[in-house]
Every structure is written in C-alpha cells, then in structure tokens.
Amino acid sequence: MKNLSTIFCILFVLLFSINSKSVTKINNTFTPGQVVNAANTFIKSLNADQQKAVVVDYVRENATKWTNLPCGLQCRLGLLLGSLTDTQLQNAKAVVKAAMGTQVSRGYDQAMQILAADGFLGTSRNGYSAGNYIIAFLGKPSLTGKWQLQLGGHHLAVNLTFDQGKVIGASPLFIGLEPKTWTADGVTYTPLKANHDLLTGILASLNTEQLENAKLNNGFSDILVGPGADGKFPTTKSGLRVGSLNKQQKAMVVDAMKAWVQIADDATAKKLIATYTTEIDNTYIAYFGGTALTNKGDYIRIDGPSVWIEFICQPGAVFPAEVHYHTLYRDHTRDYGGGFSFFN
C-alpha cells in the first residue's frame, strides 16, 4: 500500500507540477459536447464489469452518496482510479479536465493537487493514496439527458450535474487538505492557500463593530452542512449582512466565492458568480474563533440566498501538530442541479 501511494504521488506530481503562486488560465478549450465525448471514450475503454460499476442510476440515493472519509469504495460508488490501466486513467482524467474550471489551483488543477496531497500522506501512513479516489457517472453521459459526474475520495467530493448538455449544478463541493503545504521535486504546493487568504482578507477588512456583528456565539467541530446533511441549512441567517459593507468589501466577498465556484467550467462559474453577485446585499458572513483561521475550531462561512461556503480548521490527523482544512460549497437551490428535495 505504501509503495502504491508513493507511485501515485509521484505520478500526480509529475503530471500536475504547476506553481500556484498566481491565478491564471491553463489551456482548456473543451465544450459540453467534448465532455460527453470524453466520457464515452472513457466508458468504452472499460470492460463490462467496470462499465456496470461506473455508470449507475441518477437517483437521490446515489447522488448524495459522497463523503470526505478515506474509505474508498466502501462508502462510495464508481471505480477507483487505482484500479484503472494507464490508458483508462488518462481517459478518466480527460473527462474531469473537460468538465472542470481552468484556473491554476482552482477547478481541475486544484482537484489534482488534492489527490496529490493524499499521495503525499500515503508515504507516511497506510490507507491514503491518489488511487483511492473514484470516478462515477449517475446516468449515462449525453447532450440530451440529465446526469451527474462524481469525482471523490478523502478530502474531495466533486458533484457536477448536467442537463441538455449544460451544467445546472456545481455543488455540493467538499475540499479538504492535509498537510496545508508540501514540497515535491522542488515544487511547493498550497492548493487551498488562496481560499484561506481570501476569507481572512474579508475578516481583516472589518472594523471592531463589524467583527462583533459577524461573530457567532458558538463554534462547530466540523463543517455544518457536510456529507449526509443535505438541505440542513440554518433556518435563520447569522452574522454580518454584506449589504452593510462598502463596495470594496463586497467585491472581496465575491472574489472569495470564486475560489470555490470555479470548480465548474469557466462559463458555468461565471453565470453562478453573476447570480451570487446580484444577491450580495442579502448575503451574510459569520465566523467563530480567530480571524486568521490558524487554530483548531476557527471557522467562517458565507451564506446568501443561494450560495453557502464554509471553512473550518480541523486538528491534524496524520500531522497532529498542525491543523488541516475542511471546506464546503453548496447552493441552497442548485445542489445536484436542483433535482432533489431536502427538508431541514
């Protein structure tokens, strides 16, 4: 297992060695039709048993079957990346690259760095590996039907829902990270640094009164609306209303949203951000603990009419002297493409 983890860590480092200091575009000109073509190419490269495992029914039970736990296929559907041949793995990566955003350390690149982080963990402890992540299709990929793409494993759950060839939902999205930073082959990786810094930048911009209004009375042990908590948003919004902030501060909140929403292809992310921007005045920010988001239990969220983003510092699992991050992006009405009803 340790050797397998090491192999996958090296593989992903070599394939995705990108310095993530800045946010720029990488080459990706895929269209929705190319997403479907890439999916069908991947499926055709599989044997009959693999095809049966990777394409499952698009139903609520399957759509909501995701978690951040390192439990492989015991708690997920689909195929393990580590079970694929080299050609099949390349085909699988072509699908997710086609479907996801093109920003460095966001979208596809960020997801691959999260997988590489698990490969790094696997060099220190059994059970962690980039090969323990899955890919699954809920419904047959097509330009006419409704279907969902899942890419998931420990510290990552991507759920992109398509209908008539377009993405109609880019959430739920879970991203976690341990360690927060690591170096391999001379390249330093910090795939959630921008997410962290954008949120702390918002808090740093608030005056004493605003911070007092934004602070929650109670903290949490983990993200609030995580796996298995679909639809369980707080019934009342808490914290500081963004509509009370100045123009620059509002822009900072919008920029922070992008760090999660850009998991989706660029056109879809742009549309979602446009919607969230129109709702900005009725969006709230709330936090608990320290404003630097460096200690266990430090927490912040953005809660709008549509958007929901959480970020919390967790105690280290493999590296107990450090904290690691759990984050979540949801949409009150667009999770899983809005195709299922949830009740608090």
From TrEMBL:
It comes from the Bacteria. Pfam families: DUF3500. PANTHER family: DUF3500 DOMAIN-CONTAINING PROTEIN. This is DUF3500 domain-containing protein. It comes from Pedobacter ginsengisoli.
